[in-house]
Amino acid sequence: HTICRHGNPVGVVDMPEIACPPPLGVLQVRVKRATSLKAADFAVLSAATSDPYVTVQLGNTTWKSKVVHKNLNPVWSDEDATMLLVSEAGQLLAIKVMDEDKYSADDLLGVAKPWKISDLIEELSKTGASCKE
What is the C-alpha separation between 13 and 2, in angstroms, rounded? Predict the structure, then answer.
């Protein structure tokens, strides 16, 4: 498609690129650990515990980690990671820790303050780091 101004062509537009712009980059997220989580599952003959997992949301994409059963201080493996496409610097990265339940809705155990991607990039560039813990 050609863009015209006052009847004169001024440029060519790639319509698929307008509908689906290329990403700014790729963000790798790896879940490491959580400590002192609240117990959401109670049992008569054993200590209260939780079955935690983490959800990470960026734009319309949500990723879920593996569940660590019966643990209030879970540690996830290095393989528990995902890659998310960043489409704009203003996107928010939202992280929640949930308790998996089989017979009812999962319980919210905690929420991290959402990170704006541009703030995360700025912080990493100040420290010269390639990752944030």
Answer: 6
**Long-range contacts of residues 23-27, Cβ cutoff 8 Å, at least 24 apart:** 23/85, 23/86, 23/87, 24/86, 24/87, 24/88, 24/89, 24/117, 25/85, 25/86, 26/83, 26/84, 26/85, 26/86, 27/58, 27/83, 27/84, 27/85, 27/86, 27/93, 27/117
Distance CA(59)–CA(87), nearest Å, equals 8
Q: Are 99 and 52 within 8 A, CB to CB?
A: yes
Q: What is the rounded distance in angstroms from the CA atom of residue 112 to the CA atom of residue 95?
A: 5
Question: What is the pTM for the complete model shown?
Answer: 0.77
Question: One digit per residue, pLDDT tens: the chain, 133 residues?
Answer: 545 555 555 565 555 555 666 778 888 999 999 999 999 988 777 889 999 999 999 999 999 999 999 999 999 998 889 999 998 889 999 999 999 999 999 999 999 999 999 998 888 788 766 656 5
